[in-house]
């Protein structure tokens, strides 16, 4: 008899997904605000994202390290339920800390960063436990449906987050309000309350101690590589202190760390191919390639938007103030929602004809939700009337690529690269919407990269998934890399607009993802695995 989905518990779980998206996307408003409020350069402002996404890596690494030392999968031992409760409790501490710090009369930016780090540290544990837990709250056959539903709510949170934070900081877009960081305390006290309620509901609800039966696979060489990467993140987080002590250019510090981290990953790829012993999941080249791809994908998804505020301040791109950008930021994250809602159509048991119709209709319905939320907030949406054209182009790309991971990833990465090139050669609304539209294509990259990376790695699937999640780290490193280019505009008299040209960084990321897809397909074919052909056969 098929196991019924526990909808009440799953409903609570989706709230957690919502706030992951809410907090992460609201950074897009908080970053330009902090830049002005604390008088930061662009690299310093991006440390909010570095602290946030860096915590995901460190949280996952600590859990994996402790499990390796003890010889026991700690999360498996305590169960997903308790893991989520502990994660929520950590995020409560972070949210309350941020509320108190923002209310301090002479608060400092480093205190803000510490609070964000603690919140995301809790998110790291929540995410590690919540995704398999969502699958376990019902029949395994419908697990993908639940993950897509939860992911859709995550995207809705990403849409609402920037608008809510903008309203708290600046008030109604039509009004004349003085920006005040102390208003953030209202939001984070509210969030901490919701985290506490969610933890209590999980604590008092009778749920099975859901765990995985997979054996912990020790991988000492992989662990050493991950520890080295953990050390290489520190210069980014402490770039200001290093600059002040040693007078080393902050941009050089950031770029050096990026190059060295990628060097460690590519070295693992080469070394594991020569001698796979001790590498665990990383002995499979498709998994290591996937780790690099997730690093680049999350990095490009975050950097495009987190540095967007700096571009929008320029007169040739609208001359917007921090108070006026929330509608464009929400459209970028809303574009992610459009793509994910469209992608969710594929998991339902519908005829191919109905699926095609829904893949055309759902994106425009999602766009309607974006318009409605912005109107409720008080934003003007007249600028958005050209955006259905960009959505139509994305729909054509989705229909062309179907559900085939290789074809889809090459298609969406190519379209994203094209629109970044368009933005580099134009200004004003054309460039702005070209940049925003990349959110449509980023939205479906994660599942495609995962599908390719985990294909054929057998008993290392669980470990491989953990390694891939660690690579959310890219969101901590690529944004300050782009910021380093933007900061070249300081004292710039050469006539080059480095803020505009900084979008070469996302272009390089999308170009890499195209190469990654081609290379990974070659690796899989050499192992007798053709993912796209398998999907096509299953479809027929």
Question: Could you characterize what this model shows?
Answer:
The chain is an all-alpha fold. The chain has one domain (7-539): Up-down Bundle (Growth Hormone, Chain: A), CATH 1.20.1250.20. The protein has helices at 7-37, 42-45, 47-70, 74-78, 80-103, 109-136, 143-170, 184-204, 220-237, 239-246, 250-274, 285-306, 308-312, 326-344, 352-377, 387-401, 405-424, 428-442, 445-454, 461-470, 474-486, 498-501, 504-526, 531-539. The radius of gyration is 22 Å and the shape is globular.
Quick overview of this protein structure:
With 540 residues, the chain is an all-alpha fold. The chain is 75% helix and 0% strand.
Write the layout of secondary structure elements.
Layout (H helix, E strand, L loop, with lengths): L6 H31 L4 H4 L1 H24 L3 H5 L1 H24 L5 H28 L6 H28 L13 H21 L15 H18 L1 H8 L3 H25 L10 H22 L1 H5 L13 H19 L7 H26 L9 H15 L3 H20 L3 H15 L2 H10 L6 H10 L3 H13 L11 H4 L2 H23 L4 H9 L1
* Count of individual beta strands: 0
CATH class: Mainly Alpha
CATH superfamily: MFS general substrate transporter like domains
Strand content is: under 5%
How many discrete domains?
Answer: 1
Average pLDDT score: 85
């Amino acid at each position: 008899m098929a196991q019924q989905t526990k909808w009440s518990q799953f409903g609570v779980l989706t709230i957690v997904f919502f706030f992951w998206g809410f907090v992460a996307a609201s950074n897009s408003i908080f970053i330009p605000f902090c830049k002005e409020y604390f008088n930061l350069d662009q690299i310093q402002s991006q440390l909010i994202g570095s602290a946030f996404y860096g915590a995901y890596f460190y949280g996952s690494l600590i859990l994996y390290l402790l499990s390796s030392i003890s010889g026991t999968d700690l999360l498996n031992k305590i169960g997903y339920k308790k893991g989520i409760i502990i994660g929520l409790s950590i995020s409560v501490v972070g949210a309350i800390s941020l509320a108190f710090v923002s209310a301090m009369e002479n608060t400092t930016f480093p205190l803000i960063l510490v609070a964000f780090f603690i919140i995301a540290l809790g998110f790291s544990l929540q995410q590690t436990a919540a995704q398999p837990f969502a699958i376990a709250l019902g029949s395994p056959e419908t697990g993908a449906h639940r993950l897509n539903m939860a992911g859709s709510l995550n995207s809705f949170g990403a849409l609402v987050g920037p608008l809510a934070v903008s309203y708290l900081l600046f008030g109604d877009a039509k009004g004349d309000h003085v920006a005040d960081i102390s208003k953030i305390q209202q939001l984070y006290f509210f969030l901490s309350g919701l985290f506490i309620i969610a933890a209590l509901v999980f604590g008092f609800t009778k749920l099975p101690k859901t765990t995985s039966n997979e054996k912990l696979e020790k991988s000492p060489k992989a662990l050493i590589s991950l520890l080295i990467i953990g050390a290489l993140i520190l210069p980014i987080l402490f770039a200001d202190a290093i600059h002040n002590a040693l007078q080393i250019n902050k941009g050089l510090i950031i770029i050096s760390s990026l190059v060295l981290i990628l060097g460690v990953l590519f070295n693992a790829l080469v070394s594991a191919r020569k001698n796979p012993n001790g590498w665990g999941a990383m002995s499979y080249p498709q998994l290591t390639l996937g780790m690099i791809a997730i690093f680049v994908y999350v990095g490009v998804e975050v950097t495009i938007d987190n540095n967007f505020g700096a571009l929008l301040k320029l007169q040739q791109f609208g001359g917007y103030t921090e108070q006026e950008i929330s509608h464009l930021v929400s459209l970028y994250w809303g574009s992610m929602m459009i793509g994910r809602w469209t992608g969710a159509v594929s998991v339902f048991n519908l005829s191919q004809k109905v699926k095609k119709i829904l893949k055309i209709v759902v994106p425009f319905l999602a766009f309607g939700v974006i318009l409605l939320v912005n109107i409720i907030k008080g934003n003007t949406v007249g600028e958005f009337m050209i955006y259905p054209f960009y959505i139509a182009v994305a729909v054509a790309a989705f229909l062309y690529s179907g559900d085939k991971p290789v074809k889809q990833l090459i298609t969406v990465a190519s379209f994203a690269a094209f629109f970044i090139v368009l933005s580099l050669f134009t200004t004003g609304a054309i460039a702005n919407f070209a940049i925003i539209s990349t959110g449509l294509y980023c939205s479906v990259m994660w599942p495609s990269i995962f599908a390719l990376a985990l294909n054929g790695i057998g008993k290392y699937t669980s470990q491989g998934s953990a390694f891939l999640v660690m690579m959310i780290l890219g969101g901590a490193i690529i944004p300050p890399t782009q910021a380093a280019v933007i900061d070249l505009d300081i004292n710039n008299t050469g006539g080059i607009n480095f803020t505009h040209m900084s979008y070469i960084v996302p272009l390089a990321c999308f170009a890499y993802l195209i190469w990654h897809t081609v290379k990974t397909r070659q690796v899989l074919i050499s192992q007798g695995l053709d993912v796209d052909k398998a999907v096509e056969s299953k479809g027929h």
